[in-house]
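Researcher: Quick one. two chains, 220 residues in total.
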Amino acid sequence: VQLVESGGGLVKRGGSLRLSCAASGFTFSNAWMNWVRQAPGKGLEWVGRIKSNADGETTNYAAPVKGRFTISRDDSQNRLYLQASSLKAEDTAVYYCTTLTVWGNGTTVIVSS
Amino acid sequence: SNELTQPPSVSVSPGQTATITCSGDALPSRWSYWYQQKPGQAPILVVKKDNERPSGVPERFTGSTSGTTVTLTVSGVQAEDEADYYCQSTDTSGAWVFGGGTRLTVL
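Model:
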């Protein structure tokens, strides 16, 4: 059972980035998937979630990212995505994908001003 | 309120019992979860649904609830238990809410 994030990097303020999370070892299509982030030296912050296809692939977002971030999934590829736009300095963080019981190792996003 | 409040730090000697609390008005009606996070590593779930221990988690980790407070107890603390611990629950929309985290120091 594994989650592996990728796509992080250095981006300018106002820019965009697409994060990806590759899942293996479990039935990805049945899983509700979440993104959680952690700013340097800070605690965990929930970013958002996408439900399974069977549950309508409904998405929910935390207030700080609503309207700027979009979560999607490709069950045929066992992949989860986070499209982050209009990035701000406060979006600088390690981004984790997680089912709750399984967590990836994270990918780092740095937004420069 | 959907906020979860944890003490910033807890310190215990090896072999002693560490108690980490998490308070929130909505906790009586929501499941709680606890995560352990060591520096530079991803969080690990150590307690789910208030008091269930995931497979592979040592028996010294125990979750409990009482009213608006949930508690993570680590019995017989070992040096390897030194880490940050986060409680987590959900709000009425299903959004995850995290506590601010507690640094457990093993003296």
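The radius of gyration of chain A is 13 Å.
Researcher: Thanks, that's what I needed.
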